[in-house]
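Input sequence (354 aa), recorded before submission:
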Amino acid sequence: MGKVVLVTGAARQLGGRFVRRIQRDPEVERVIAVDAAPPPRSLGSAEFVRMDIRQGSVARVLAEHAVDTVVHLAVTGGSAGTGGMGSAVKETNVIGTMQLLGACQKSPTVRRLVVKSSTSVYGGAPRDPAVFSETTQPKTHPPGGFPKDAAEVETYVRGFARRRPDVAVCVLRFANILGPHADSALAEYFSMSVLPTVFGYDPRLQFVHEEDVLEVLRMAAQEPRRGTLNSGTFNIAGDGVLLLSQCARRLGRPTVPLALPAVTWVGAALRAVGVTEFSAEQIRLLTYGRVVETTQMREVLGFKPMYTTAETFADFARSRGNGLLPPERVGQAVDRAAEMLNVGVAGAEEGAQR
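Predicted structure, token format:
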């Protein structure tokens, strides 16, 4: 008998792709795909169960199918154009996870739990460390939105792991996910014709390719190979970093540096017209950036991404077409503006000294 895998969030783009991917694993006998909405594309041979995980019926599904592996992908942020983190999304993230964990705790067949989380749990603050490891405590706790939801979800998962030590629990904290099919708020931001940025800041960013996301989820759902441990909490990101200014150049899109209050106003206006999900979390990311350590991912989990951060962004950029300007012209314009700003600052300092 092979593994019976239950996947939540199967109607979303990433969840649907993972359902189709995990079916090809020779260890897997059946896949049960769960979501409150019908999937927009075929899920192959998976059995789809339309169900809201906020309801208690998930325990019945686990029992009926003797599920031994649960991959929880229904922890998500609001997509662009949704007007922010709706109450239904937040309830699915938190209440839905609580219901799912309660069902898993009572299930005698569940032996493995994989949870999709985010590096946004580290928050974003001016005094943050240069690099976050899995044990780093955030300087400030996320005040709301998806980062707060993800942090709460991880708290409940840790409680479950203590109550069911016989279940292998793997929490994957993903950096910003990009690729040709990315449908995240950050992907929508980079798809804008002109990119609003925070004046005086050029944050460091990390990305993980959606193909690497699917592969590490598949690996985490497997029985651990020799020398690896498919349980614990792991940062997942491609090698290297990119500055926001480098991203803009590679897209061929001009930037509009704005004072922080103005960025907040612009974000509110963009949300109001449904252009992009310019949340407070995204503004913090575009101000302070975020970089994580991935040694545990390589040495303990045994996963090496196929794409670096730069390669991930290049693949995403190709899928979005050419920008308004050739990248070299954008780079020249940004460099010229930076030189003028530096000259102005030097002049001001010289005048102050006199």
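Checked by second reader. The chain has one domain: 3-338.
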